[in-house]
UniProtKB/TrEMBL annotation:
It comes from Flexilinea flocculi. GO terms for biological process: monosaccharide transmembrane transport. This is Monosaccharide ABC transporter ATP-binding protein, CUT2 family. Residues 6-241, 251-495 form the ABC transporter domain. It comes from the Bacteria. The keyword Repeat applies. Keywords: ATP-binding, Cell membrane, Membrane, Nucleotide-binding, Repeat, Sugar transport, Translocase, Transport. The keyword Membrane applies.
Amino acid sequence: MGDLLAELIDISKSFPGVKALDHVNFDLKPGEVHALVGENGSGKSTLMKILSGVYTKDEGKIIVNGQEVEFQNPRAAQDMGICIIHQELNLCRHLSIAENIYLGREPYQGLFVNQRKQIEDTRKILKRLDVDLDPTTRVSELTVSKQQMVEIGKAISTNAKIIIMDEPTSALTIKEIDELFKIIHVLKQEGHGIIYISHRLDELASIADRVTVIRDGQHIITMDYKDTTQEKIIRYMVGRELKEKFPRIKTQAGEIIFEVKNLTARKAVKNVSFQVREGEILGIAGLMGAGRTETVRAIFGADKKESGQLFLHGKEIHIHKPLEAIEAGVFCVPEDRKRDGLCISMPVYQNATLPNMEKVTVNGIVNTRKEIAIAEEMINELTIKTPTVSQTVKNLSGGNQQKVVVGKWLVKPAHVILFDEPTRGIDVGAKVDIYNLMNDLKKKGIGVAFVSSELPEILGMADRIVVMCEGRVTAELDASEASQELIMQYATQYM
């Protein structure tokens, strides 16, 4: 135990109707990156919330630096040198970098904050991380990747030796991921232990020393990363072999279902045109800031259009707000499911019927029995893992939340479904479920278009690919001619 920063022994935790963790073991050494992987709902986040003091365990032992501890709150864990960097960053955007790093721990000179010392200490931390930022810069002016560096700086300022990173690359570009990995290597050399949670298994090869897989709340295996493969890790994660990572099906592309002509929306979307055909999946590729999400939002009526036309089955339709899109049968699965796709404090059955109230109301009164029946049908059809239809959506895993977002649209007759980053933040097994769902829509003749920042996903699932750069379409490629290199060439081709 002397050479371990932390050890979790036989940790168990239950919530109403769910045993989240069942005698799980995990440990962390100084100067290593220990990857923690598993499907959504496997118990990864619960385990880390116990280590970081957010949850208290039901059973088991927590040993930090050779000493058994009981954490009643996050501050107690922080005092023992444990820091968690959440996927959704926890910063005060209106404050400066220095103010964020030392928030609640400001250096005082008499009755006043010693701002000079705070700024100078922050400058030293940023230099140590080889990050070129002015400590007085307001956080709202930073990119997501730079905000992440501020979170890491905050961890170092508390003398944290154990740093937990939860999906740190989910919103980063390839270049930004490289910058993050450089900092991770610096932290390793300084003796910090890093617990790294990610669904992007391919990136573990660059940083992971060991990998632990948990499934259904149980410890499955811990391995040296050099002794395993991605395929083995996936098999341990899902408990079965996924024959195809991208289960593309071949169908004959038919008539044009949906057409976008010369769409312009503010500064982000400039004269965009494309078509969606029956029996195909259209991929929309590009780098961050290319205008992909803005295009989808403008089509759906969530953002204002300045000009352009939309055609459904050859007939022009006019969409100025989401309700008009829904009435036309043009649906959107948004990028941020928690903010734009779900009412996370409401149960599954109410989320399932929110856009379908006409099916469950009589004379203005909601028929709860009908709501539950519709939700149960959706749960069975999409294999949504939930103890009951009354489970609050925020308590579902990311993959199951995403299925609820999709499922609520399938209650209505759909003509076109636009997916914006449909697999962001969900595990490999749930990704395949989403891909198969897209295939089912494709077979039914429903128009499918999806935005993705993951080029392997675009290449693996799209029959045709539209590439965007700086708000414009720079290329349209058939899947048979597309490659990562070609897409990247057009994604950086400013016009």
